[in-house]
Amino acid sequence: MRRVAWSLGFGVIGCVSLIAWAAIDTHLCGVFAKLCTPRTGECGGGLDACPATAHTVADLVIYLLLPPIVFCVLGYAISKGRPKASTVARYILIAVSLHWFLAFLGVRLFHV
């Protein structure tokens, strides 16, 4: 039961990380408009402006569901022993930083 609680707790942290990244991304788009300008020939203007293809649906599912799932797996892996609070905080900090960095690279720089 303890491992499930750890997994759910880390999953919630993954959801919070996703929401926080969305707020940071919105701020970045306001400050650096060029980051959010779609390349020539690409669909721009949000999800409602793009045609619903299998690729766009897969991108949306991966973008929304993968971070909480990865955080759940991390929580499950950490809960095997009795980690110190500093170790848990370190894992959370690394996971959130890595999530934000990869989201920035994928969404804003590589336009995946």
Give a short summary of the structure.
This protein is mainly alpha-helical and 112 residues long. The protein is built from three helices and no strands.
> What's the number of extended β-strand segments?
0
N-to-C order of helices and strands: HHH
Helix content range = over 70%
* Shape estimate: elongated
Low-confidence stretches: none
- Determine Rg (CA atoms, Å): 16 Å
Distance between the termini: 38 Å
Average per-residue pLDDT, rounded, comes to 88
Question: Major β-sheet, in short?
Answer: none
Number of helices: 3
Structural category is: mainly alpha
As for the number of domains, it is 1
Provide the β-strand percentage band.
Answer: under 5%
Transmembrane segments: 60-79, 91-110
Keywords: Membrane, Transmembrane, Transmembrane helix
Distinctive features:
3 helices, mainly alpha, 112 residues, membrane, transmembrane, transmembrane helix
Structural commentary:
- With about 110 residues, this protein is an all-alpha fold.
- The chain has one domain (about 1-35, about 50-110).
- Helix content is about 70%, strand content about 0%.
- It has three helices and no strands.
- Helix 1 (about 1-30) crosses helix 2, helix 1 crosses helix 3 and helix 2 (about 55-80) packs antiparallel against helix 3.
- The relative contact order is 0.19.
